[in-house]
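Handout for the seminar on molecular recognition.
Each group receives one record of this type.
Step one: identify the two inputs.
Step two: read the structure output and locate the region that could contact nicotinamide-adenine-dinucleotide.
Step three: write two sentences on what you found, then compare them with the reference statements printed after the record.
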Amino acid sequence: MARDKPLQIAVVGFGAAAQAFIPAIQANSSFELVAVVEPHPEVQKAARLLGVPVFHELSELQTVSELDGVYLATPTPLHAQQAIACLESGWHVLVEKPMACNVAEGIAMVQASRQCHRHLTVGHSHSFDAPIQAMKQIIERGEIGTVSMVNNWCFTDWVYRPRRPEELDSKLGGGVLLRQGAHQIDVLRALCHSPVTTVKAKLFNTDPKRNTVGAHAIYLDFENGAAATAIYNGYGGMSSMDFTQHVSEWGYRQTADVRKWYTANQAPQSAEQELAAKQKRALDAIPAEAPYQPHFGLTVVNGSQGDIRQTPHGLMVCNASGQTEIHLPSHQSPRDLVLAELEQTWRAKGSHWHSGQWGLENLRICQAALESAESGREVLLAN
Ligand SMILES: NC(=O)c1ccc[n+]([C@@H]2O[C@H](COP(=O)([O-])OP(=O)(O)OC[C@H]3O[C@@H](n4cnc5c(N)ncnc54)[C@H](O)[C@@H]3O)[C@@H](O)[C@H]2O)c1
């Protein structure tokens, strides 16, 4: 049988997210990286090493013939406008999470995708990770009965890592709720597998020198009776790796003595110094391959007939049959799994789980959490 021609993809924005993604594209024979768009002169130097054209502006992609789609890894405030422009140019779009700064922008993106008959996918997000996908399959096979609770705890140094100013501003898609809560909501929805009916949240902004939402506690009710919590503390204190046998978000073992951990005690930096530090960190912030499974904090699922949690190599399922450890393959990184779904979607060969609509629902719940924290009340979601 003749092989499909590789899908031509361009990457827009060559920062931390893109630099983590590009090795997966280059290693995947179903895709061909054909161009990069990056306006920053210093960052362009690194992008040129890829051996593909590097453009200053998105509009220059019009010169690439037969482009199938783009991966938007630009700062969140640019997502809506760039995604709509790409869809209108006839390209499929993979956009980073959070898909937009607010629900109105997200709706416009989903509408553009429908009107232009091009696919909009949101990712990478952590429900793409192999352990979360395997948990979902175990639940669907009924091996732990009906899901009653899913709880996720993440404790990181997110607040003190080098940032652009907009990354700290909730109105521009910043702060831990929109940036990291988006991952937690994505995982909780994948595992509870039902529409969210109510959201109650409390947010914390506790360091006046770093004005941002740095921690949250979110409680979700699902239509099928399940309940879930997303707990996040990004203030660089205790790490949730202390609860995951020291395995990190990207599947590396990082004991406390070797962790690169940002704390409140750093010397203040100007915006330029901070941007330069962010660009330097992007070079190796997210490794392409890892010996262990990715752990976005600690995720525990409780069902009517059993429970599931992660282990460094996979999952531990506890039910009437006892405790069973399941080893999961580690040859595919989370980014490889995004590309697998993207290929199925772009070639119209498989289901499209992480669609614009799925990402929009994640954003709607994050926005409801912001509203709940502001009003001190539970927010009801119309489904
Ligand atoms: N899924 C994940 O695990 C993950 C990890 C990190 C970041 N992200 C997301 O990826 C997005 C980018 O975050 P980042 O940390 O990589 O940011 P970044 O600042 O490191 O990278 C963004 C890049 O886009 C470039 N850029 C700016 N304006 C542009 C334009 N008009 N056209 C093209 N490029 C432009 C910047 O110069 C920069 O190099 C955000 O939405 C963030 O939430 C996701």
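Reference statements: The chain has a mean pLDDT of 95. The longest helix spans residues 356-375.
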